[in-house]
Design a protein that fits this description.
Layout lengths: L1 H8 L3 H17 L2 H19 L16 H31 L2 H5 L6 H31 L7 H25 L3 H19 L10 H7 L3 H13 L6 H21 L4
GO biological process, one term: response to antibiotic
Main location: membrane
Family: Belongs to the ABC-2 integral membrane protein family.
Length: 259
């Protein structure tokens, strides 16, 4: 009976997944809080910092670039952190908590379609926010666009994958949406520090910078800086991102429960 039901649901799975994506998109657009923190706040932070005169002056300890130049990749990373740790986990955990995922198991809609839609939407929002930060930095503060565009895109896609995998792990470990918010917040601030929100990675003491660069957002900050300067991101930094994405994905798959 179960095999027959599964077989009968299989032809409808792609159509059901598209329907889930459309429904989740409508719900996502009705969440002004998530849209603000993921898509608006990082660029707003860049505008505020860039409006400070000292941030538009060249800094010797940053290799002659301005602080506003260094903070463009920081705001790019901030969007991925917001998306993966603050926006997505409460939604996914809330669906599990209310039994929505369990009820889906009896329909052509698979629970994995919901998780995939959430990761896709939040990933797209983070990438859109990154493009907005790059555009505003260029137009408002004359920040050069990345000179190694392909390398920049590769690093950005890898760190977005890492952020979403980390969010999936938070969702796996949290039994309720309140717990997901608490756990996400606890991880959020260390990740912000490693991304350079308070102090750019290149301005950190060497010992601290080496530790930070072993974390996904610290490695991503350096990879984005290298691509912005015209170099291909270092293989070590890209390797750190690939390794973290693989480890976090495996851990999330191991401990994730649909009900």
């Amino acid at each position: 009976m179960t095999a027959t039901a599964t077989a009968s649901h299989a032809p409808h799975a792609p159509r059901a997944a598209r329907a889930v994506l459309k429904a989740e998109l409508r719900l996502f657009r009705r969440e002004p809080g998530s849209l603000f923190w993921v898509m608006v706040f990082p660029t707003l932070l860049l505008v505020i910092l860039g409006s400070v005169p000292s941030f538009r002056e060249a800094q010797d300890d940053l290799g002659g670039i301005r602080l506003v130049d260094a903070y463009v990749p920081v705001t790019v990373l901030l969007a991925t952190i917001m998306s993966g740790l603050q926006a997505m986990p409460p939604v996914v955990t809330g669906y599990r908590e209310r039994g929505i995922l369990r009820r889906m198991s009896a329909t052509p809609v698979r629970p994995s379609a919901v998780l995939g839609a959430q990761m896709g939407l939040h990933g797209a929002a983070a990438l859109g926010s990154a493009l907005l930060s790059l555009a505003v930095g260029r137009v408002a503060f004359d920040v050069p666009l990345p000179r190694q565009g392909v390398g920049y895109a590769v690093a950005l896609l890898l760190v977005t994958s890492s952020a979403l995998a980390l969010g999936a792990l938070v969702s796996a470990l949290s039994r309720t949406s309140k717990a997901a918010t608490a756990v996400g917040s606890a991880v959020f601030f260390p990740m912000m520090f490693s991304a350079g929100v308070w102090l750019p990675v290149r301005a950190m003491p060497d010992a601290l910078a080496h530790v930070v660069e072993a974390l996904p957002f610290g490695a991503a900050a350096e990879a984005l800086n290298q691509a912005a300067a015209g170099d291909w991101p270092g293989p070590v930094h890209l390797g750190v991102l690939v390794l973290w994405t693989a480890v976090l994905t495996a851990a999330a798959a191991r401990w994730f429960r649909w009900e």
